[in-house]
Amino acid sequence: MSEFLDMSGYGAYVWSAYAIAIGGLVLNVWMARRQQRRAVQEARRRLAMQEQS
Amino acid sequence: MNVMRNSAAAAATAILQRDLLLAYRRPGEWLQPLAFFAIVTVLFPLALDPEAARLRQLAPAALWVSLLLASLLALDFLYREDARDGTLEQYVLSGQPFTALLLAKTATHWLLTGLPLALFGPLAAISLGAPPQAAPGIFVALLLGSVTLSLLGSIGAGLTLGVRRGGALLSLLVLPLAMPVLVFGARATALAIAGDDASGALYLLAAMGVLSLTLAPLAAAAAVRISLE
Amino acid sequence: MNVMRNSAAAAATAILQRDLLLAYRRPGEWLQPLAFFAIVTVLFPLALDPEAARLRQLAPAALWVSLLLASLLALDFLYREDARDGTLEQYVLSGQPFTALLLAKTATHWLLTGLPLALFGPLAAISLGAPPQAAPGIFVALLLGSVTLSLLGSIGAGLTLGVRRGGALLSLLVLPLAMPVLVFGARATALAIAGDDASGALYLLAAMGVLSLTLAPLAAAAAVRISLE
Amino acid sequence: MNWVWFHRFGSPPYFYRFAGRWAPWFLGIAVLLLLVGLYGGLVAAPVDYFQSDAYRIIYVHVPSAYLSLMTYTWMAIAAAVGLIWRIKIAHAVAASCAPAGATFTAVSLITGMIWGQPTWGTYWAWDPRIVSQLFVLFFFLGYIGLRGAIEDRDRADRASAVLAIVGVVNVPIVHFSVDWWNSLHQAPTLLRSDGPSMPMSMAWPLLVMIAAYTFYFLAIMLMRARAEVMRRERGGAWLREVLAREAT
Amino acid sequence: MLEVSNLHLWRGDRHLLRGVNFTLFSGQVLQLLWPNGTGKTTLLRAIAGFLHAEEGELRWQGRRIDADRDAFHWDVAYLGHETALKGDLTAFENLRYACAMRSPVTAERLRVTLVDVGLAHSDPAQPVRSFSAGQQRRVALARLSLWNAKLWLLDEPAANLDSAGQQLLASLLLAHVRRGGMAILATHHAIALPDADCRQWQLPQEVV
Amino acid sequence: MLEVSNLHLWRGDRHLLRGVNFTLFSGQVLQLLWPNGTGKTTLLRAIAGFLHAEEGELRWQGRRIDADRDAFHWDVAYLGHETALKGDLTAFENLRYACAMRSPVTAERLRVTLVDVGLAHSDPAQPVRSFSAGQQRRVALARLSLWNAKLWLLDEPAANLDSAGQQLLASLLLAHVRRGGMAILATHHAIALPDADCRQWQLPQEVV
Ligand code: HEM
Ligand SMILES: Nc1ncnc2c1ncn2[C@@H]1O[C@H](COP(=O)(O)OP(=O)(O)OP(=O)(O)O)[C@@H](O)[C@H]1O
Ligand SMILES: Nc1ncnc2c1ncn2[C@@H]1O[C@H](COP(=O)(O)OP(=O)(O)OP(=O)(O)O)[C@@H](O)[C@H]1O
Ligand SMILES: [Mg+2]
Ligand SMILES: [Mg+2]
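Predict the joint structure of the above. Result:
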């Protein structure tokens, strides 16, 4: 296992690259969901405003 | 009400003339890029130890970077004033092809920025240690490169028109497009300074100029039209 | 109608706050200097063959040229918008000391231009091959130099406001005033990169900063006042 | 030619429902493929003779690099469709490509930098491929910035569409930069006319990873486009209906 | 003939105009007297083609205006809150370049027109920037009358004009209408146009 | 009390105003109804201190205004052709910063004033840039009424205002006068101010 983590001495490079890649993937999912939530909120506000006027 | 209609060429010429007249009345605006260019080329030798050989190697980079920055500096004004005082709307309503009218404005920009810089550039290069024989090559390279930069810039200026103080955005948008011009322009200049044959790079610059001359005005016109909405 | 009157400091703070809020609403504005830094540092290596040693020698000139350009670009906007929409007249009529109010505007300009540049400058220098130990020296040099450039710029901006024909040309006279700042700034940076003691040049920069801090606001206020006539 | 599907996609309610239905599936497929690809890349693939284990970075670097260019292309196509036919959905799709594209580009840059240290001995070099990829990042940021800077949504859509179309010239520049300028960077090993020059045992995890990234991109794009479509809707019965359902 | 049918216009998230309908024939004037912020400027700009209307239709001489915009624009003159004058040019130069964009006009005619709008006595070399607000408006009116457009779209044309200037505006409008032109004005003080076919529209909800 | 005596003003080479004389007392309003280009804006700007008068004298509360400009300016509010609003800020923010330059005002008072000038229904986050011309004028009027200045100098204050807006302006002026304020307006449509001490000045040559 530690040999696997070591990656013949390149562990730091390989794992940081993978971490950044996976991090990027997760970040995008999170941002997309947040955007959806915001769009819903915004749409609610807009409808409320229209009903008001 | 059947009146003669002026041709698109006449309308574009009128805009060109008017803008040149305005520039003549307000010299500060177009002198600024020139002054900036001059300062940069003076600054380089000052900021470095003046060793002729090294300076000469830096000359292409210094020239092209300051050319790009100087035209960016002037681009911000390209359509802005016309947009503010409502003239741009009148262009649209003139019933003349919008692309032609905007091309006239880009031509003014080039006449006031690109051309003087191309004329002044060889001088600056020589002051940076380039041999006088390199002057024609440098001149042609700057001439061709500045045409492309003005045209590319006109797209960016059109896109950032609706944006208050779009300067940063403008440079962010134009820069990636301008990269090939810069690379080949600097290469042509370096070759000219070294006394080698620069015609390959110059042909490439000319090709980029022609390409942007055919496509950029369309994109610029579309961008400006959108900004008027 | 006896109402409490806000102090000059409160009024100046309000202007500062408002301008920062405006900048926040228009992020293009404060991103501009950073964009220029990025551009210049990216462009220089592109225009040259990438040889680290030569790049490092270029770093001082590249940094200071882009600092100057960023200040110039922002300079143009310093009072122009306020002049156009009549806010400048309201400053005069507020009964508050005009110099203090204009100084607040110059401070905003510096906060949005000089400070970010001073913060990012060392990073740019390192990407051009400067050693990380040079960072503090570069930072201080940029910080001091940018204060002076902002203050000098405020005079130029005041002068360009004038509608009269000479006004714009006068601003070109301010540009050369910036030369000493650039020269000593670049020297300080070069020394810092070489690992030498840069304190002499830094003291000079500081002295120029103090001098312009005492004189420039007065000159700028006078210039702006004249433009309102 | 049957244009019905075209118009159906042009209708916000249909698109909203379609995207809502398919995005989770695409995301699921992407995760599965990703797990397979990661296993293949990190465990199954043999050690490279020259680069030892450092080469395994390829399994994240190359998919993100490809996808960054692919995203850009799709964005430009969607923008062109939106600009020419004034289809709002197309603009929504274009807008949804940019953030994902920017992340792909940033990841490819960073992983490339990390990979550069063991192979070229430096994190950063002023190399045409690297710089042109950096400009792609600038372009994505510029696109997002332009969108943010224009308040009116319709105008922002159309202005950024022009930008996306103009900027598409970057894609060939990045792709061919290795051939046009002599570069430090790897010449094509996978995408070349005479087939991949890589042993199959190393190539299959890469292909799986590229597939995973593609599905992932589709999922993100649909999720975002859904929100963008809702933002563009000014009222109307279906929006009310959708909002009522979202509450639960 | 200008036909506006079922035009809906939005500003941001506000549904400002909900179905505007009217037809304007040759020789007619329509005055919009709506209150502040109800969409006069928006409507004029939409007709001029600066705003895209998602719903509704605009027809000029029976054809949709987006079918041939350049032909429509050649028939239209728009005068907005901004005068579209260059402050660094003289009144004469402003007119000359503005006309060069459309149709050829002799220098003599330009000079006569400047006299007609009451700018005879000013220094011919004076840049427009130093004109008073009303004088600038008059230059813009001179340009309008030189353009020979069939449809005038005027947004608060009487702003800054003194009473003589308002009479001048009225007489320009009358002459325009007599030649078969048509005009839509947004204004807060109705302009009296005796003997002209002139409708006043008080509120956007009204039907004209 | 404002005393203007024998004021001569030049623009470029033109001797525009040849000896203006008048005195304005607390509670008085002076309406300048001069024709276009005769120097209304010039006069107002000279009184505000933007223009230097080579001949003549301006006195405020008995003292020459150049003796203590800052004190005089504290008493003056000027509203010109430009509204001095920042397009990127909301109406509320515009008022807040404009007041911070003079005297402290509570947020509540700002909100009430905005309602008073008829801007209650707009979206509070809407930037002033997207306001209609008349709405922008109303924000400027709100600011004027918050400043507590004794002397109002208004250059065409009724521009862009609909009839409700013009009534609003009149009522603001009346309230100002009742508090002992004074005002000089340049306008082309005289504003009716019943029960106020209001003079109308038709031509610059006239003596008021
Ligand atoms: C910051 C540094 C780097 C950047 C910005 C970068 C960028 C890119 C891009 C944009 C592509 C896709 C090109 C295309 O689709 O045509 C790519 C592909 C690739 N990169 Fe990099 N790269 C970097 C460093 C590296 C390093 C250090 C290596 C390994 C020595 C490497 C190996 C590869 C390989 C093998 C491919 C696939 C080529 C193909 O099959 O077409 N890259 N890179
Ligand atoms: N982005 C936006 N969001 C919300 N409302 C907006 C937006 N842009 C404009 N508006 C509103 O749309 C209306 C624009 O009206 P318009 O300028 O056409 O009015 P107008 O009739 O010309 O008024 P005026 O008489 O004041 O000139 C205003 O009420 C304005 O507040
Ligand atoms: N530099 C100059 N040279 C000559 N005349 C000038 C110059 N600057 C201004 N003027 C003239 O001075 C006058 C300025 O008048 P001002 O702006 O005060 O008029 P106004 O009464 O406010 O008119 P309006 O009703 O049009 O606003 C104008 O007639 C203008 O042409
Ligand atoms: Mg309006
Ligand atoms: Mg006036």
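The CA atoms of residues 160 and 169 of chain C lie 8 Å apart.
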